[in-house]
Amino acid sequence: MFTSVLMIEKALTSVDVEFVTTLHGDEPVAFHVLLQPRGDQADRLLRAIDDVALGELDEAVREGGTPEGEEALSIGRRALEVSLAALRAAGADAEGRLIEDHPLDALKSLVQETRADEVIVLTDPHYVEEFFHRDWASRARHEVGVPVLKLFSHSKA
Predict the structure, then answer these.
(1) Containing H/E element for 14?
(2) In this structure, what are the phi and psi dihedrals at residue 85, rounded to the nearest 5 degrees?
(3) For 22-46, how does the pLDDT look when each residue is reduced to its tens digit (9 = 90+)?
(4) Residue 140: which residues within 8 A CB-CB, separation 6 or more?
(5) CA neighbor of 113 nearest in space, from 101, 97, 102
(6) 150 has which bridge partners?
(7) What are the DSSP calls for 77-138, one per residue?
(8) Are 20 and 151 in contact (CB under 8 A)?
(9) Nearest-angstrom CA–CA distance, 41 and 48
(10) Phi first, then psi: what are they for 153, rounded to 5°?
(11) Are 151 and 4 contacting, i.e. CB atoms less than 8 angstroms apart?
């Protein structure tokens, strides 16, 4: 069985689930999902800058309404539950956890604990972070010791 650590920031869509569950053809895959809800001040600023760069000014203005604190965690828990259920419904083994702090430490630890074959980072584009190689996938490539695949989710957060 192939073991993948899947790092996400929101609930998987049906297209995302089909995408990640078919990456390895018919080989069975076990997913260990890490979800870090986005919602702190720095995240909002970076997302607003991304929105402006894409010409989506209305979206940039709405970033101020992003949930924070316990509300963000509650939404994150629900997104994780939905994602795990969707992966299981597609025939994959799936378990997961919510992470609040130090996502790369949690990722590195989980890769070692599960002896993962790969890491898949599935997020919306974060152009500012990507430009400076501060996004999860760029940073993980130097930390985890297994291949890191970066994919963009199929819906806007």
Answers:
(1) helix 14-21
(2) -60, -40
(3) 999 989 999 999 998 765 444 555 5
(4) 7, 104, 107, 108, 119, 121, 148
(5) 97
(6) 121
(7) HHHHHHHHHHHHHTT-EEEEEE--S-HHHHHHHHHHHHT-SEEEEEE---HHHHHTT-SHHH
(8) yes
(9) 11
(10) -65, 160
(11) no
Q: Closest Cα partner for 26 from 7, 51, 2?
A: 2
Cα 36 → chain centroid? 7
3-state secondary structure of 50: helix
Query: Would you give the DSSP letter of residue 64?
Result: G
Would you state the structure tokens that stand for residue 104, as one six-digit string? 């790369």
Q: Give CA 31 to chain center in angstroms.
A: 13
Q: Which amino acid is at 19?
A: F
Q: To 10 degrees, what angle do helices 14-21 and 69-89 make?
A: 50
Which amino acid is located at 27 in the chain? E
Residue in this structure with the two tokens 């402006």, named with its chain if needed: 52
pLDDT tens-digit series, residues 108-143:
999 999 999 999 998 876 655 555 555 767 778 888
**Cβ–Cβ under 8 Å, residues 125 and 152:** yes
Residues in a beta bridge with 95 = 32
